[in-house]
Input
Amino acid sequence: MNNIAIPTFTLLAIVIALLLALFLLTLKTNRHLSNRLFATFLILTAVDISGLIKIPQTEFLQKLQVFRSMLIFLHLPIFYWYVKSVCYSDFKLRWASMKGLVPFAFVIGILIPIFFADDLKPSFFQFSNEQVFTIIIVLFHIQVAWYLWLIYRELKNFKTLAVNHFAGNHLQAYRWLMRLTAALAIFYLLALFKNIFKTTTYTELSEWLKIALLFFELAVLCWYLFQAISQPEVFRGIHSTLSLEKSNDSNIDSSKIKELEMLMKSEKLYLNPSISVKDVAEKIEIPVRDLSTLLNKHLGKHFFDFINEYRIKEAQEIFKSTDDSKLTVLEVLYNVGFNSKSSFNTAFKKHTGSTPTAFRKSL
Output
């Protein structure tokens, strides 16, 4: 069955990956760099998958196979840049960004003497095909672990900045990127097991894992692309120059807390889906860093939670009002400043302990 299934699923996966890449490259949007990076990621995915196709080996095709093996190591660096382009609206591929290729360059520097210049290779670079395969697998998974750590660190920093500066969809973008990263981590872990089984007596299990990995990879990519296309506003990103500057507590006027609370009640700034800490700081005429300290240390809240608390209270009042009883949950969440049902449900349950639907039924 595998002799028929693997080539069929492989060709299907390649076609879908290339079509999705073509779609992203031709899509009219302001997020050109993000789309191009993810399209490149998809093309590299197709190149990687093509290695499953068994064809007669000639000298030319063997060289192409070597080239394909080296291209695979670009998979994670491209995804790392993609994550940065989604997180930060001002991200561009400059010379400073090239430091993200250091692990890739290191690995390629090891592989080139193994693959090329047979006459010039020293004796310790003479390897059998099985040894070359093992070296590639080990280097690849070391690189995977390194880039996954870099991505996790980048996302953690992005989340910290987002919850302290914004109350919109940035945290949802963080969750989606984190889920995609986790899915890729699971994929590469399964790929590691597949390669380990390939060198043991459990070769049939390795073959079945090939099919499972094809389905898993395509399902994850299609899911993420659907999310990104259906709600593109979630992936607006934030400016990379934002920082969490420390403020001297003694310089902060505690009366600003009452002024802030009065401002929120009178002007209802939280109803603006794109409200930022900078907008509120300008209203009460204090530096952004002082407002952040006021929220974090004096109120014990991030800006994100501070704004959402007012939004949830507003939603509760709407649910209790007889005049607004005909409004749907979707209409209510838009009215109070949210722009996605999932973020509204998450925030509502966090602040009230129940879902919006359950809260309305309990009245």
Q: What stands out?
A: Residues 42 and 351 are 40 Å apart (CA to CA). Confidence is low (pLDDT under 50) at residues 119-124. The chain has two domains: 2-235, 249-362.
